[in-house]
Design brief:
Blueprint: E1 4-9, E2 12-16, E3 32-39, E4 44-45, E5 52-55, E6 57-62, E7 66-71, E8 74-76, H1 78-82, E9 93-96, E10 105-113, E11 116-119, E12 123-126, E13 141-144, E14 149-151, E15 162-167, E16 180-182, E17 188-190, E18 199-208, E19 213-216, E20 220-225, E21 230-231, E22 234-235, E23 245-251, E24 256-262, E25 267-270, E26 272-276, E27 280-285, E28 294-297, E29 302-305, E30 314-321, E31 326-341, E32 349-351, E33 357-360, E34 363-366, E35 370-375, E36 378-379, E37 388-391, E38 394-397, E39 406-414, E40 417-427, E41 430-434, E42 440-445, E43 450-452, E44 456-459, E45 473-475, E46 481-483, E47 492-500, E48 503-514, E49 518-521, E50 526-529, E51 534-537, E52 539-541, E53 551-556, E54 559-560, E55 570-573, E56 576-579, E57 588-595, E58 600-610, E59 617-622, E60 628-634, E61 643-652, E62 661-667, E63 672-676, E64 682-691, E65 705-706, E66 717-722, E67 728-734, E68 747-754, E69 762-766, E70 770-774, E71 781-790, E72 793-794, E73 801-804, E74 815-821, E75 827-832, E76 843-855, E77 865-872, E78 877-880, E79 887-897, ...
Parallel strand pairs: 4-12, 13-20, 24-31, 32-40, 42-48, 50-58
Antiparallel strand pairs: 1-2, 1-47, 3-6, 5-9, 7-8, 7-10, 10-11, 10-12, 14-17, 15-18, 16-17, 18-19, 18-20, 21-22, 23-26, 25-29, 27-30, 28-29, 30-31, 31-34, 33-38, 35-36, 35-39, 37-38, 39-40, 41-44, 43-46, 45-46, 47-48, 49-52, 51-56, 53-54, 53-57, 55-56, 57-58, 59-60, 60-63, 61-62, 61-64, 64-65, ...
Amino acid sequence: GVMRSLWSLGLAFLLALTSRAGGLEIPLEVEQLPTITVQTAGPVIALPFEGSFSMRCEAKGNPQPVYRWTKDGQAIDPLFDLGVKKERNNGSFVIHSGRLAQFQGMYQCYASNNLGTAVSEEIELIVPSTPKFPKEKIAPIVVKEGQPVILECNPPQGIPPRKIYWMTIGLQHIEQDERVSMGHDGNLYISNALEKDSRRDYCCFAAFSVIRTIVRKTAMSVVVKSCRLTVGGQSSSGSYAIPERRPSLLVPSGVQSEVRLLKGEELVLECIAEGFPTPVIEWTKRTEKLPKRANLKNYGKRLTINNIEEEDDGKYTCEARNSVGDTVHYFNVMVEEPPRWQPEPPKGQLAVVGSDVHIKCSASGKPRPVISWRKNGQPLDDGPSSNRQVLDDTIVLHRARPEDSAVYQCEASNRHGTILANANIMIINLPPRMLTKDYQRYSVVQGRDIIMDCKVFIEPPDDTTESVEGERFSVFKNGSLQINQAGKEDSGEYVCFATNSEGKSAITALLDVKDPTQIVEPPQDLHILSGTTAQLTCQAEYDISLRNEFQIVWSKDGEEIPPFTEQSRYFLDDGMLQIINVNQSDKGTYTCTARTNLDQDTASALVTVLDVPDAPEDVELSEQKSWSVRLAWVPGDDHNSSTTEFIVEYEESQWDPGTWRELQRVPGNQVTALLTLHGHLNYQFRVYAVNGIGKGPPSNPTDRYKTLPAAPDKNPENIQIQGHLPHQMDISWEPLLPVEHNGPGLEYKLSYRKLGVEDIWKEHLVKRHAFVIKNTPTFIPYEIKIQSRNSHGWGPEPKVVTGYSGEDLPTASPQDVAVEVLNTTLLRVSWTRVAQATLRGHLGGYNVHWLRKRSLLHSNRIPEERHFLTFPGNRSHAMVPGLRPFSEYRLTVNVFNKRGNGPNSDPVTFQTPEGVPEQVPILTVSNAQRDSITLVWAPPFEANGILTGYLLQYQLINETLAMGDMQEVNVSSADTTHWLLQGLGEMSKYMFYLSACTRVGCGPQRMEEGSTVTEASEGNWRISEAVNTSKNFHLIDGLEPGTVYTVCLLAKSRLDNASIFEDVIQTRVKGLASLHLGVSTQGWFIGMMCAVALLTLTVLIACFVTRNKGGKYAVKEKEDLHPEVESQGMNDDTFGDYSEENPLKASQCSLDRGMGGDSDYGDEEECQFNEDGSFIGEYSDHKNRAKGN
């Protein structure tokens, strides 16, 4: 037959060798015999303190094998016979501690399917019993002195290792030597007994370390009778002799013995002899020297050789000799081996029908192993028609048939053990069987290599091969196709073919070439401050089809960082790594790995943690002198920020114990400092380092260092000379610190004299740090010096300082005061400086005082407003801002020193010129008609001159907010506060601008927006009760739900019906009222503003009218519109708690403003109307909100 495996892509065909399943490596997809894969290696020793014992038996095969067990050659069911359950899908079972004795025995596992049976090796389960010595009564051993003694131990059997000890009942070891020793069998041998060997507590102990048990045999008694002669019932010390005896062997018996042991075990030969004097043992090996590995133990009585080899075979001799004679024993040592496969156990085979199959089973061992065969666990049955021939270690299957397929067991045995091997023999002819999944999808990154599998099982095989076309394509013997440096053009379908004499098979593989994963923004090296949060970022590009598999993983120093947990300080999110509360353990190399299931890319960054330096170590003192010492230290770790300096601190125990103070700073490249110290102090020192991050912790303090007392080495500093009173001089200074005293008894010598005249030094000794000199002339210069001293001497020569005695008030005022009015609010003042002699102290500067006497707009006087400014230094002019226009002022100037102010200059009176008015405080749009609008306003607070009228401008605004041409109206009457604009467009929006004017010009504009209407409204006006002007809201009841109303606010005193507030509202539908918070019953809250105070009104009235479409509204008579306040009454019950959702912001102003008297618009009384028009802004804002409700 012919077998082929062919790969093709498009029109290019690739031929490959198929892989042949050899030995036992048959793919599990193919029907096959059982093969045991896991079994327990015996023997198993069931120790009582272990929890459980596994008997493992696992096998593979197709069909799945079933399992059975035998124990001591008899079939058993683990569940019914042993009470244990087998594991699912294998034959293993677990024995739990309990009554273990019933489980002891030889176990064997059988794994079978319909093709055959595999057999495990025998597993011996040993359940050891607790070793015990028999209870017995042992008679005392009585011997004569010089006779041998054998104390038998006969230790019980147990789990090795076992150790034997001979001790007393008091656990004292029996002393052993050439005469007394313990044999390898555990017995205690005494070559010749002495009187000192007599005792009643010879005890044999057996210790079993595996089961942690020690047992003791009944104590034995030995009585040794003396050989001394007795005379008259007493021992004689004159004649004493132990008869000499030639040696004889206590162990072993006879002249010759045979020793058999396995290769690798330890050879132990022992000869223990009795006799007197004590015999000496000598070992030899016939025809050659003892091996170098031979060791003599037990005082030369025991010969041992570890890990014995075949060359250690032979005859060994032990000779026991003393002065009387000798004796000899011969050991015939034979080294043997258990069965062992030579060179390896038989392998399974695949063979075609009709071929001859040879199964060879070669084993070595000493004695030579006996080979036995079984088939599927049963003895061979060779009938007349059998095609099987057994030739010692080989089975030949002639012209093999499918029914010869089986598991053949080969067993090799000798007296040292048995080994067993299973050989799976399969006799089959099959067409190619594809073991690789059809339409398997493969993915590879562009530029990488890819291997696509084509695993085929073929029997019989074929050796035909063909070459592969294409440099980048390779086909392996196992049928796999490799493409090197795959490109996008390699994506597509590939087909693999396989044929033999029995048939043909094929599979298709799909290849998809992906874009590589690449880090485009790698993490950057980072220097981070300890205790802060470090952040590393990593961004990568990858094939979009791999987005579900793509992930970014971070690792530190090669160890992966787990996802964020509550205990972790790492936070990972979308390629970002945050390290919270960084410390020194976080420094290292951080690697970002961007990976998919196909490839990965890595990038690393070094994180350097910056921290304050560690404390210096090994701080020591040297060069110790009376008032200096050298300090040296070893710097600590600077934590990646160079040390800039070291700071030396000291603590002294006399004046301020426990307080550390700075003594000296040392550059960061120095590690020593020479410290200059004060006297009479008990110091200790410490050092800390400073780097770019900050100050580190201090070092441990040094030992105490005490300095000797001395005279002061400095004088007081910061001498202050002041004259609080005209005829005295107050002198104070900064005293020496306690640590600067240098000794006891510190005091100060104060010396002073007048400067510039011949005067002697006057001296005072004081202990305080202040002194007052009285009866001095006013403001005279003095020389002062202060020297310190203590009980050990004077300080250095002091420096002389200069000061003045006490000051007095200046006596002169500035002359020639003149003013220059620069504009309406700014003034320039000048004067002639006062003479130095009149100052009587240090010049402080000049004060300018001014007083507003009256407004030129009103003849009546106003409350005086006094102001002043201070101008320090020796100057002759100043600028005075903040004046009010069109006013009369009075101004004075005075000089001052530290003592106080001098007299005022003669007053100067001046006037400020007229200015432009302030912005009008309010502008409202009222009575909008089809072609007209009424504007209402209030005059400005401050006219700053004589008001001449108003400038009114307006322009049309279209839907795109573009402005039309500006129109202008001059209102020439200063008393006019409303204006009717006619000739406007119907349903048009306008922007109005109004400014007040004086003779100087017009002030800033106030803007307001308004619109004309399509038709005039129709309805009946109703007048509410008088509005309480002290409140900022008014409640109107009795309105109909869902109705449109016009609400306006009128002044009682006006007769032209011009409203100062007007708006259109619609009441809510009844059923919806509950949906809006803050609305109770059917009442409606109308917010009112205190702007009426600006219009100099006395009372407000609210009116409203129901609006209807297609009609005009009637206006009542003027007397109905303006009823008297007395007739209306003020019902305070109407002003309840107001909780409308969007209440009007309102300011409360006093109605006293503008109602006559001495006050005018320039009064200081405050109102919550800002000059920038914020009141209008609040009103407009509320108006828009109200329409939205």
